[in-house]
Amino acid sequence: MKTQKATVFIVDDHPLVREWMTSLIRQQPDMTVCGEADTVEQALQMISNAEPDVAVVDLALKDGFGLELIKDLKQTCPKVAVVVLSMHDEMLYAERTFRAGARGYVMKRESSTRIIEAIRVVLNGRRYMSEQVAVAMADKLADGQQANVSPMSLLSDRELAVFDLLGQGKESRHIAESLHISIKTVQAFCARIKGKLKLETERELLREAVRWLESKHVD
After folding, report:
1. Model pTM?
2. Domains in the chain, please, with CATH?
3. Counting beta carbons within 10 angstroms of the beta carbon of residue 201, is it exposed (0 to 12), middle (13 to 18) or buried (19 or more)?
4. Which residues of the chain have pLDDT under 70?
């Protein structure tokens, strides 16, 4: 009697990454891909219909921020275990994805073996994080929670989402549509971000957002 395969849904805005992940997962005897999406809206609808065991989610999507998707999935599809597959080499993102409801966090530069391991770990009801992130978290606990606090840690999740989308070159209207908020709310978030990061102008805000996003991508 054949054992039923675990179903995996892939959410990434890069076709080549989705193709690579699909090929990788289908090589596993105990897994299969049940669908894929490149936007938050599409992912929410399709995951709700497919009810996969695991959703592998990137943080940067065409129409929004993956952190918002993770929060929505926790509310609408609580049985779906989320593994974040991210280019962001930054503990700040890992911490927030776990708080949002993710079960795993793995870097795109990790080996294929590690990525499959992450999926299997969360399928077994446990959490998984890249070794680099785990070491960084351990160091933070050892040094004390207030040591080496990044200015970015002052931003709320919504402010970070707006900042991330600004770094991607999105305009206020697109950000508002992506996060399902008004343009005035986006402008209010931008004002608060400038205050927290001690920035004076919109140009400085945009430049800092682009610089931040580029610095958090792994080569």
Report:
1. 0.81
2. 6-141 (3.40.50.2300), 151-215 (1.10.10.10)
3. exposed
4. 1-3, 88-90, 140-150, 216-219
